[in-house]
Design goal:
With 464 residues, the chain is of the alpha+beta class. It has 22 helices and eight strands.
């Protein structure tokens, strides 16, 4: 067979991801905060874009009007100095209540666990030669207040005896919060029991010998080994559960993650209104002075080519933002239409819904709906939810209508909350009760939903 080269023309269709299309997809995925940041960056690099001041929010207008109506009060420093010399500066002067002094202007510093412990360590009577050792131990504690470094390593680090390190550690373990600098959960609980002055030796024995058993709710086994009533074991365990297993966590830095909803659903009369939360973001427009330069410049000049490029980029950005707004609006409208019973009566009436179902209704691709809902939140009369919350699989109810997994979980939680604590319901029994409500699901599914709700098994929920 003879082989050779030849040329052949062929026509085919394929999707080309242009830079404009990639940008539109990216903008659709952004939430409200990310979109605002993206717009600010685009304004910096594209001179054609500017903020349309005509869309200034009512809040900003009210602030400006308030400033005009209430001019800044001038301070009579002569009077203030006289008051200060008389010692009246706490009741008069420029920072009195009449001048609306804001305590938010005062900077605050959150005390860390190490700062709190070092303050107490400075008050001890330990010699200066032990200061570095105690400081080393304190700064070796983790965020929960536990010492994970072996005593041997600390002794080797300072070339001293282990007994000396142990003595310094015991001093630190007397500090507040109680249970600090423990090397295990058991030691942490024992330190707290000692600080509380607990005299009942049975409590100490349960912590020392049966900590894992009480975690598994094996009260009868513990009662048999200790030769006491099961009710007594349960009472002791209830007290142990009031202790703090992580004494250092109240000093840990809390990362507050605030959610800014992308959509707001408000009920007006009998109807639900969709409001896209983009009023706080800048509204873009194309600058007229740059637009006029196109008609006054030479068509073949580099300036016109640059202006055309930036003009097309700005126009596409504005179009993509508006397209994102319309897509999210239509998706939320479909959610309201499908989940109206949810907004009227609560979580138990949430219906199963898929991305494909919404995509077919608004005539877009399924991936478009996924991008429009991913990472975005909606504020409703029932609270704030992630848009993905409304998309879930479900089962068929007794009337033939679908019931979502979230609705089943609500029924399951209600059943468990109403059970007899001394005779908790098994998964099989819960399955039977759900079946009477027209929810036919398997025992395995009940167990899965129960675990999703962080509800322990019946053996661990039992009270004696």
């Amino acid at each position: 067979m003879r082989m050779g080269y030849n040329l052949q023309l062929e026509q085919s269709q394929k999707l080309v991801m242009t830079p404009q299309l990639q940008q539109a997809i990216k903008i659709l995925q952004l939430n409200a905060i990310e979109l605002d940041q993206f717009i600010q960056k685009e304004i910096e690099v594209n001179p054609f874009l500017e903020v349309n001041e005509a869309f200034e929010s009512d809040y900003e207008k009210s602030i400006q009007e308030a400033k005009k109506e209430k001019p800044t009060q001038e301070v009579d420093w002569k009077e203030y100095s006289e008051d200060y010399s008389r010692g009246d500066h706490y009741s008069k002067g420029p920072y009195s209540g009449e001048n609306d002094f804001s305590y938010e202007n005062i900077l605050s510093h959150k005390t860390t666990l190490q700062d709190h412990l070092m303050t107490q360590y400075h008050l001890t009577l330990l010699g200066k030669n032990y200061y570095d050792i105690g400081e080393f131990i304190i700064y070796s504690l983790d965020e929960n207040g536990y010492l994970n470094m072996p005593i041997e390593e600390i002794a080797k680090e300072f070339n001293i005896e282990m007994a000396t390190v142990e003595d310094i550690l015991k001093v630190i373990q007397t500090f507040e919060p109680s249970g600090i600098a423990a090397r295990s959960l058991k030691e942490c609980l024992l330190i707290q029991l000692s600080h509380l002055g607990v005299d009942d030796r049975r409590v100490y024995r349960i912590v020392n010998e049966f900590l894992e058993d009480i975690a598994d709710n094996k009260y009868p086994l513990v009662a048999k080994n200790m030769n006491i009533a099961v009710e007594e074991v349960q009472k002791i365990c209830d007290f142990i559960r009031t202790l703090e297993p992580k004494p250092g966590r109240k000093f840990s830095l809390v990362n507050h993650n605030y959610i800014v909803p992308d959509v707001v659903i408000k009920k007006v009369g009998a109807e639900y209104v969709v409001i896209i939360n983009d009023y706080n973001g800048p509204r873009l427009m194309i600058r007229e002075d740059y637009r006029r330069m196109l008609s006054t410049s030479d068509e073949n000049s580099e300036t016109v080519k640059y202006i055309n490029d930036k003009l097309n980029s700005a126009s596409w950005l504005i179009k993509s933002i508006e397209q994102r707004r319309q897509t999210i609006f239509r998706v939320v409208e479909m959610i309201i239409d499908k989940q109206r019973d949810f907004f009227e009566y609560g979580k138990k009436h949430l219906k199963p819904m898929t991305l494909k179902e919404v995509a077919d209704r608004i005539d877009v691709h399924e991936s478009t709906v996924s991008r429009a809902t991913n990472g975005k939140y909606v504020e409703t009369p029932l609270g704030t939810f992630e848009l993905k919350y409304f998309f879930s699989s479900g089962i068929e109810g007794e009337n033939g209508e679908g019931v979502s997994a979230e609705s089943v979980k609500s029924f399951l939680k209600e059943i468990i909350e109403g059970e007899d604590p001394k005779k908790p319901l098994s998964d099989n029994k819960i399955t039977e009760l759900l079946s009477k409500k027209g929810l036919n699901i398997s025992r395995r599914t009940v167990a899965k939903y129960r675990e999703d709700l962080l509800i322990p098994a019946s053996s661990k929920r039992k009270r004696f």
